[in-house]
Amino acid sequence: MSEPSESTGDKFQNPVAGFGVTFKAMFKKRLTEQYPEQQKVTAPRFHGRHQLNRHPDGLEKCVGCELCAWACPADAIYVEGADNTDEERYSPGERYGRVYQINYARCILCGLCIEACPTRALTMTNEFELANTTRESLIYTKDELLAGLEEGMVDTPHAIFPGMDEQDYYRGLVTEAAPGTERQVAVSKGESKEQAAKDEEVDA
Ligand code: SF4
Ligand code: SF4
To answer: Which end of the chain is more exposed for a tag (fewer CB within 10 A), N or C?
Structure first.
């Protein structure tokens, strides 16, 4: 059966209706964004680049358990855990994340990994400028993902706060690095005890 042919009235009205849509749009508020000159403000819970967080004394929250990697639907996370030792400690507990990588060529920023993390070591920031020109540069390593040092923190490795255990860190009982932690780190890096003490006096 053949299709009914368009009437003469339709032939005239259809293009006019189409131009009507164009005409209405000409008077609507423009949505053009002047990015990157004007940065877009994201919603507070926006899913951006990940961050590996620290405890208030600078020790790392990641325990290298790999739960984030198992939860990831895009297979974008690679973790290798290792044991802490008394000489080289990165987190308050038994294990820490020795290798940590997120491949942003795969990541879909869904947030399942941060839901899976038992220690709140992994969270997401509001940073969204992740585009790059090579695949290698889209693989973020632990150095790039680890949070910076805030006031009261000392960079790892260093000892656990004296008299505290891992649970105390999660109870919020450790609020800053123990006195002398900077000196301890300097000595472990080969500086003499006397020089480290002098440096600490100058910094104080
Ligand atoms: S945000 Fe989603 S896709 Fe990206 S690493 Fe986490 S779980 Fe994987
Ligand atoms: S980020 Fe969290 S879930 Fe992932 S390895 Fe570290 S502690 Fe485990």
So the answer is: N
Pocket test for ligand 1, best of 113, 114, 140 (most atoms within 8 A of CB): 113
Query: Is 14 part of a structural domain of the chain?
Result: no
Structural domain contains residue 86: yes
55 within some domain: yes
Q: Which ligand is nearest to the CA of 138?
A: 1
Give buried/exposed letters for 72-96 (b at 16+ CB in 10 A, else e): beeebbebebeebeeeebbbbbeeb
Q: What is the mean pLDDT of the chain?
A: 90
Ligand 2: which residues within 6 Å by Cβ?
A: 62-68, 79, 97, 116-117, 119, 121-122
102 lines ligand 1 (CB under 6 A): yes
Q: What is the pLDDT of residues 101-120, one digit of tens each?
A: 999 999 999 999 999 999 99
Mean pLDDT of 178-184: 86
**In this structure, is residue 92 part of a structural domain?**
yes
